[in-house]
Design brief:
Blueprint lengths: L12 H13 L3 E5 L5 H12 L2 E6 L6 H5 E3 L1 H9 L12 E3 L1 H7 L4 E6 L13 H6 L1 E4 L4 E4 L5 E6 L7 H5 L2 E5 L4 H11 L5 H15 L10 H13 L26 H15 L3
Parallel strand pairs: 1-8, 1-9, 2-5, 5-8
Antiparallel strand pairs: 3-4, 6-7
Length: 279
C-alpha cells in the first residue's frame, strides 16, 4: 500500500516519501505549508489513489477535541424526559458520534483528514494525544470503549498560524510542503490547464514569481491563486504580449486574482509611481 501520486496531483518525491513513511509507521502525517499549496487536496488524492473513503474534520477556532469523539446532548434528554418520551431511557440516543468515532468504527480502512488544526485552541492537539496514540477512547455516559477496527490513515494540516505542542509533534511524522519551484509549477499548471501555450505560461509564471519576490508584500499569492489567474488569462484569450509591463505599470493584468488586500495593491501602485517619477 503505497502512494505514488496521481494524474491530478503533482507530488514531489519527498512528499510521497513522507506519506508512505507515515503509513508504514502508522503515525499521523502532519503537513505544514503556505495556504494554497495543496495540503487539504493531498488527503483527498491519497484516499482516491489508495481506494479509501475519506472522513474530513474541518477545524474552527471554536472546535473542541471532544467533538471529534462524541457529544452528549443533555438538553435534549432533559426536554424528552419532561415530555415523557420513551427514548429517554436509553442514554445512547443522546450521544452524537464525532469524526474520530466515525473513522474508528468503519469496517474498512479510511483516510481521516483533520484540516487546519492550528485554528483551534492551543490545548486542542494535546486533548487528542491518547486517542490518536492508542486508537481508542471511552464513552463515560454509556461505559463503552470505542476502538479502531482498522487504523485510519490520518493526515493533519496546519497553516503554521501557531506552534503545536511538542508532545503532539512527537507522535506525528512531519512534512513541510515547500512552495513549488518554476519547473514543478509548470507541471501543476499542466494538470489544471492542459495544452496551455508555453510562451504564455513562461511569461505568466515569470511575472508571478517576480510578484512573490517583491519586498514588502503582505500576502504572497499561492499555487491556487496562480491557477485561477491563468484560468482568467485563458478565458480572456490573452497571450504573452498582453502581459507585458513597463516600469510605469507595475500591476499585473487581472491582478485581483493574485493580490488579495489593498496594502499589496497600493505597494505596486507606489512602485509604478516611483518609476514614473524617475526615482
Amino acid at each position: 500500500m503505497k502512494f505514488k501520486g496521481t494524474h491530478e496531483y503533482v507530488a514531489t518525491e519527498d512528499l510521497t516519501v513522507a506519506i508512505n513513511a507515515a503509513i508504514a509507521l502508522e503515525r499521523p502525517l502532519l503537513v505544514k505549508g503556505e495556504p494554497g499549496t495543496g495540503k487539504t487536496e493531498l488527503a483527498w488524492q491519497v484516499a482516491g489513489a489508495l481506494g479509501f473513503r475519506i472522513i474530513e474534520w474541518n477545524i474552527k477556532s471554536t472546535t473542541k477535541a471532544q467533538q471529534g469523539l462524541y457529544e452528549y446532548d443533555a438538553v435534549s434528554r432533559l426536554r424528552d424526559s419532561q415530555l415523557g418520551e420513551e427514548r429517554v431511557n436509553d442514554i445512547a440516543n443522546y450521544i452524537k458520534r464525532g469524526k474520530l468515532w466515525e473513522a474508528f468504527e468503519n469496517e474498512e480502512k479510511v483516510v481521516l483528514l483533520i484540516d487546519e488544526i492550528d485554528k483551534a485552541d492551543i490545548e486542542f492537539p494535546n486533548d487528542l494525544l491518547q486517542e490518536l496514540d492508542k486508537m481508542e477512547f471511552h464513552v463515560y455516559e454509556t461505559g463503552q470503549t470505542v476502538r479502531a477496527k482498522n487504523r485510519p490513515i490520518i493526515i493533519i494540516t496546519s497553516n503554521n498560524e501557531k506552534e503545536l505542542p511538542d508532545a503532539f509533534l512527537r507522535r506525528c511524522f512531519f512534512h513541510y510542503i515547500r512552495f513549488p519551484d518554476m519547473e514543478t509549477m509548470r507541471k501543476i499548471v499542466e494538470v489544471h490547464h492542459p495544452g496551455i501555450k508555453d510562451s504564455l505560461l513562461t511569461t505568466a509564471l515569470t511575472q508571478f514569481y517576480e510578484i512573490r519576490d517583491t519586498a514588502g508584500l503582505k500576502k504572497k499569492p499561492s499555487t491556487s491563486e496562480v491557477i485561477d489567474w491563468l484560468k482568467l488569462l485563458l478565458a480572456e484569450d490573452m497571450d504573452k504580449d498582453d502581459l507585458k509591463r513597463d516600469g510605469t505599470d507595475a500591476l499585473p493584468k487581472l491582478h485581483g486574482a493574485l493580490l488579495k488586500n489593498e496594502q499589496d495593491v497600493h505597494l505596486f501602485e507606489r512602485i509604478a509611481f516611483l518609476a514614473r517619477s524617475g526615482r
